[in-house]
Design brief:
By secondary structure, the protein is α/β, with parallel strands linked by helices. The protein folds into 7 domains: about 5-195, inorganic pyrophosphatase (n-terminal core), CATH 3.90.1640; about 200-315, Diaminopimelate Epimerase, Chain A, domain 1; about 320-445, CBS-domain, CATH 3.10.580; about 455-610, Beta Polymerase, domain 2, CATH 3.30.460; about 615-695, Hydrophobic Seed Protein; about 700-830, Methane Monooxygenase Hydroxylase, Chain G, domain 1; about 840-885, no CATH class. It has a 7-stranded mixed beta sheet. α2 links the parallel β2 (about 10-15) and β3. α4 (about 130-140) crosses α6. The longest helix has 27 residues, at about 760-785.
């Protein structure tokens, strides 16, 4: 029986969040009474006590199954308890793809952006999820066993801190009363919750107590403790609870570095500090009184800095947004042109302004002055102001607090935040406003609040682990040279992107905050190689003996004199150098200087976009200034299976309406198409190019019909097959794909397409000749197959056809017998060689001349047809042919 056949069907599944607590487990047990036929999937927990309780008491008593035992395609209803966040049930991620799935959710946590859309269930702001389910069981008059009452009671007692947390509600007490009526044993619960701690845990608790420091943040006492251990210590939350009792503090944040993560556990007894909101900012969860987060790729110092930034912003006594905002706001109407908008912002000295609907006043986004000014300089001043909104901007309500504004301005990098009331913009808060508010108390200012003091993530270990040793050594040498020259050196762009994505990439790009050409020449004296300089662009290429190319650039800012122009270069800083790049995922840098090696530089939220799988441009004129970025956006989206962000999609469509592709030279278009043809998902790229109307914009005859799509699908299969042969000769993929794209186009129409792509006369003639040759070969092949000719005839028929034509031939005719013959030619016949040569014919007394070729060709035909397998047979045949030109066979009695 196969693995798929052995899996069980599970129309209804009950589950909870990863790293479950007692409330989550208890809620699952309670929910099974509402869904009696459901399968329970427990995702595991880091709390040792809970794991043991689950294994010893529950796993066999109830219908718990491992996710690997279930055929997830059979799930029709998913019941989520103690969470509504899709990312917190990643163990069942593929269930969400089921087309007929319905979701019921029972949860007591605040709403988040990641919440699923539920079809049923109940969400209430009570002390525990188990309480909500008790309410449902009691309402439906469902009775439970004493053992079940004990399990469900554990969840209520844990999540209410035995009814001591300020999140406790009257409903929690009532649920406990109902459970007592069902037979709950409070002694059992006390024994399980109040448990002894190990020697390791005692040592860790002592370290926490010694490190604890209380901070007065706006008259609120916040205790922060830090510990570090190389091994994971279970039940960290238990230690926090005990420390809470020992210290008698109202708010406690405990940071524990264990293995490769920082574990943050938080408790609060006062309404002024919502630890659930703070832990959610770290990717964790919980509620106002108790929450936690597990944080990867950040140091304890970084986590602590961000923690203080969140605390200062969330409880800072500056009042509401209404009290802090600037009003009345300066607004731009969507009927106004970009030039008008630029004039308004210049007149009032604004760096950005909201754009609103002229009829309703509804905010449509934020326009930055710099972008509007550049659009005007490109002759696009008459375009509507809405065309160059960077993205769908976040807004806040007037009763929001500073925390919400900080998340948008510092977290999302949005320069200005519109304040919305009854769908109208009543005010704005700017980045400058926020900094001025926070800087009133500089002594308390956490490092992560001010961008220029923000700590950087180190990926040094990634570089060492994911790069060849010799390449990592080059990075070190480049950094050492930078230090000796007194300049900062960075590895930048796609090289850094692919390190983070663990994708092989040895195309190293360096940027120097100094003279890049001088740096390249000095680096060549250290590691060898030769330098080719490009003074116009202030760049150089260092070519090493092993063939590796290292591009070295001066940190520069590019600006475009007119749309679709090549860039003009000015000296600038690394931030400006990164800002000139195409997409956020390519706007990353890594410092190489000693002491900083591996520090990641990310000004534009690139890591977030990599994690979210989004292709996003850096500024709204990106596709106007360089329309080739449209093709690159599509290429990167398909390469990494990312989505093109909503605003980036709109900007692409806007550039297409302006017919920006027509302004590109054919050479640049063909270069981008050639890059696409080297990708794994070529057909998906071409479909996107068609959908965005890029193909027809390049040339009206470039289409993607259903017939062409089918041919391209077969071509991808053939190319993948050929790649697995590991033959030395590599096909020129651009030629093969052009043959497929031009299939069906009349021959007299092909030359204009070649001219649009700026192909040279030689390239165009080669393409036309190959097309003609391939079609002729296909015709001859059909005749050979129909008359069942010998293999040698097939060999000589295909011999003159280049590899690109052969592969196109295979894709065009996907019949099994045709592919069998072509495969045999490519894998066996094409590389066949004779064991004799012209020298042997000369030794037989034949005078040099045309007959050499004729005789060797006849002998090769015999070899292919299996009549002269060895050298002796071939020599025998050669003797016969030399003495008797009409001899065509081999005697069967040859020795």
């Amino acid at each position: 029986m196969s693995q798929a056949q052995s899996k069980i069907a599970a129309p209804t599944v009950i589950t909870c969040h990863m790293n479950a607590d007692f409330d989550a487990l208890s809620a699952m047990v309670a929910a099974r009474h509402l869904y009696p036929d459901a399968v329970l999937v427990f995702p595991g927990s880091q709390e040792k006590n809970l794991r043991n309780f689950y294994i010893e008491s529950l796993v066999y008593a109830y219908n718990f199954k491992n996710v690997k035992e279930i055929d997830l395609s059979t799930v029709k209803k998913l019941v989520m308890v103690d969470t509504r966040q899709k990312t917190r049930v990643s163990h069942l991620a593929e269930v969400f793809d089921n087309s007929d799935l319905t979701i019921d959710a029972y949860d007591h946590h605040p709403n988040t952006e990641d919440d699923v859309t539920q079809d049923g269930g109940l969400v209430l702001d009570w002390g525990s999820t188990a309480t909500i389910l008790c309410h449902e069981l009691e309402k439906r008059e469902i009775h439970i066993t004493p053992d079940e009452a004990n399990v469900i009671g554990l969840g209520i007692y844990e999540d209410t801190g035995s009814f001591t947390f300020n999140s406790t509600t009257p409903y929690d007490y009532h649920a406990a009363s109902w459970l007592l009526q069902q037979g709950m044993d409070v002694t059992f619960i006390a024994d399980l919750i109040t448990r002894d701690i190990s020697a390791d845990q005692i040592a860790l608790l002592n370290a926490m107590l010694e490190s604890a420091h209380t901070h007065d943040i706006n008259n609120i006492s916040i205790t922060v403790a830090e510990v570090s251990t190389d091994e994971y210590v279970s039940d960290f939350a238990l230690l926090v609870r005990k420390m809470m009792d020992i210290e008698q503090t109202n708010v406690l944040f405990a940071l524990g570095r264990m293995n490769d993560r920082v574990h943050l556990v938080a408790r609060s007894r006062i309404p002024e500090v919502n630890v659930g909101q703070i832990c959610a900012s770290f990717g964790g969860g919980g509620h106002a009184a108790a929450a936690s987060a597990s944080i990867k790729d950040k140091t304890p110092v970084q986590v602590k800095d961000e923690l203080f930034a969140l605390l200062y912003s969330s409880i800072k006594p500056h009042g509401s947004v209404r009290q802090l905002m600037s009003h009345p706001p300066i607004l731009i109407e969507d009927t106004q042109s970009t030039a008008d908008a630029c004039d308004i912002m210049t007149r009032f000295g604004l760096k950005a302004a909201p754009v609103v609907n002229s009829q309703t006043g509804q905010c449509k986004g934020v326009l930055e002055h710099q972008i509007a000014d550049r659009a005007v300089s490109h002759g696009l001043g008459d375009a509507p102001a809405t065309d160059y909104l960077m993205r769908s901007n976040a807004t806040v309500a007037p009763n929001a607090n500073l925390y919400d504004v900080m998340e948008i301005v510092l977290g999302q990098g949005q320069r200005l935040v519109p304040v919305i009331e009854r769908d109208e913009v009543i005010g704005v808060l700017t980045r400058t406003d926020l900094i001025n508010i926070l800087i009133e108390e500089p002594a308390r200012m956490p490092e992560s609040v001010l961008p220029h003091r923000k700590k950087e993530r180190s990926i040094k270990n990634m570089l060492k682990d994911r790069l060849p040793e010799d390449l990592f050594h080059i990075l070190q040498e480049a950094g050492e040279l930078g230090r000796s020259l007194g300049t900062q050196v960075y590895a930048v762009g796609g090289f850094v992107r692919d390190i983070l994505m663990n994708t092989p990439n040895t195309d190293l790009d360096l940027v120097v905050e100094g003279d890049g050409i001088v740096f390249a020449r000095k680096l060549a004296t250290v590691i060898g190689g030769r330098v080719r300089a490009h003074h116009k662009f202030q760049t150089a290429v260092l070519i090493l003996e092993n063939g590796l190319h290292i591009d070295v650039a001066t940190a520069r800012l590019e600006y475009y004199e007119y749309p679709a122009a090549l860039p003009t270069v000015e000296l600038s800083s690394i931030k400006m150098d990164l800002y000139r790049r195409d997409f956020t995922i390519n706007a990353l840098a890594v410092k190489l200087n000693p002491g900083q090696l591996g520090q990641l530089v990310d000004f534009f939220g690139s890591q977030k976009d990599l994690k979210s799988g989004v292709i996003r441009v850096l500024h709204s004129l990106s596709f106007v200034e360089d329309p080739t970025r449209i093709l690159r956006a599509i290429r990167f989206a398909q390469r990494y299976q990312f989505r093109i962000g909503g605003q980036t999609d709109r900007l692409i469509r806007n550039a297409m309406q302006l017919d920006m592709i027509s302004k590109l030279s054919g050479s640049r278009i063909f270069h981008e198409l050639s890059s696409i043809f080297e990708e794994e998902h070529v057909l998906d790229c071409l479909r996107s190019l068609r959908d965005y109307k890029v193909l027809e914009s390049i040339h009206p005859l470039l289409t993607l019909t259903p017939v062409q799509e089918e041919l391209l699908e077969e071509l991808e299969v053939v190319l993948d097959w050929y790649k697995l042969l590991y033959l030395k000769e590599e096909p020129r993929r651009a030629i093969v794909y052009l043959l497929a794209l031009l299939n069906g186009v009349a021959e007299n129409k092909i030359l204009p397409i070649c001219e649009r792509l700026n192909l040279t006369n030689r390239q165009a003639n080669e393409l036309l000749t190959l097309r003609h040759h391939t079609n002729k070969t296909i015709y001859s092949f059909k005749k050979w197959r129909n008359r069942r000719g010998p293999l040698s005839d097939l060999y000589f028929l295909l011999e003159e056809l280049p590899l690109e034509g052969l592969l196109f031939f295979m894709a065009k005719f996907n019949k099994e017998d045709t592919r069998k013959y072509l495969s045999q030619y490519l894998t066996q016949l094409r590389g066949i060689e004779l064991d004799i040569s012209g020298t042997d014919l000369q030794h037989l007394g034949l005078e040099p001349g045309p007959r050499y070729g004729e005789i060797l060709r006849k002998i090769l035909a015999s070899v292919i047809d299996g009549e002269a397998a060895c050298r002796d047979d071939q020599l025998f045949l050669a003797k016969k042919l030399v003495t008797d030109p009409d001899f065509m066979g081999i005697e069967k009695n040859m020795q």
